[in-house]
Amino acid sequence: MKIWLRRLLALWLLSVGAALIFFPYNDTRSGRIEKEVVYLRRQALLDPVETSRFEGQEITDITGPELNPDDYPDLWRAFINLGEDWPRDTASSEEWNRFQAAVLQHRSPQCLVVFREKLIACSIETTPDESQGKPLVPRFAYLGRYNPAIKDLAKSDLSDFPAIMEAVKALQAPVSPDAPPVAIPRSQWDQMTKRHLNPLMDGQTFRFEGTYYGPEFGWDYVEVAGRVPGLRAGMIAMGVLCVAGGSLLLRRLYIRKEGIMVNPRKIALLYDAIALVFAIPSAYMALNFLLEKLFFIPWYINDDFIVFMGTFFFLGGIPLLVLYTTRFTLQSIDITPQGIALDGMAGKGFIPWESLAGIEFSDEYIAVGRVGIMMPKKLQKRLKLKDDSGGCLMVNEPQLSSVKREIIHKFDKHAPESLRKGILERLAKW
Hints:
Helices cover 41% and strands 27% of the residues.
């Protein structure tokens, strides 16, 4: 596997280097960067300090699980709907009596509750009209947003966050209605809320100099344009380094092993050259894709399908092609008086002559396209050497007839007399 990774890295470096040096590219940026930002907005909330308007009444927060649609469906509907657009509503008197007894733990003709930052005045007639026999109807009135957990922040608290301070000043000062709002980077806003606020309690809202401010999340777009100076020279220099590194790695792949190389060095060189013929154009497509994503430089070839397929083949197809080449060209076989030794990509194996149980052939196929239909095509006839323990060694079919004759000659020379005739008869069909 190390040889496969080395060959893959070498071919990647060589193809990228050649594509960087010899192919044309655009050098002008064109696009826009999308960034998540926060816009500050004034928030309309009731001031908890002004308690006089509540006439000393205790305010009960019922935002938790006490009020739920399963136990109090009519109350839930009324409290959910209350707001600036629906300031008043009524509900079932039976539910309200149960809710007062179970949650508020007292019955009162008037009370104040907070539900999801809504301050709601709850009232009911104190004297029922018994002659009519009508039940009392609870009435609810929306008073405004109310959250006593919101903190007061001073200039010293916001001094480390210049964009937030600038947004506050812009909202305080009279500006033109056409002036764009100040965009606060999301990272700066998150840093401020982590230091000063508790989003679970205050909804990322704070009060500054008597005014409430809250976030509105959105996106900001920064236009990117202009020529990138020195881009071509830098790419050529990087290409030279890639070619040099790939050449050094590739030289270490053609070391001769002991025994007979099933496919000699020139076959490996031919297969690597074929791989480069496909890898260099696909590397060029991948580089165009990378430049567009990282530097907003448009593709030199304005064809989405070609760029996508080239990038896909460079990342997925080349590794598979290199895997096949390595498995096909790395194998060596050594036939001695002691037995048969095989060295390949999967490791080394050995079968002594006394353990050799038989010789078979195994056809290997590859899918090819014929008139639009994928059909199997015979790739090679592999030699399968079986031992008496159930294991086997798979020998690739040599691409050169001279190598196949040399392997057969070694079998003829070193095989035991009792096995030689049967082995040669089988090898005659290879």
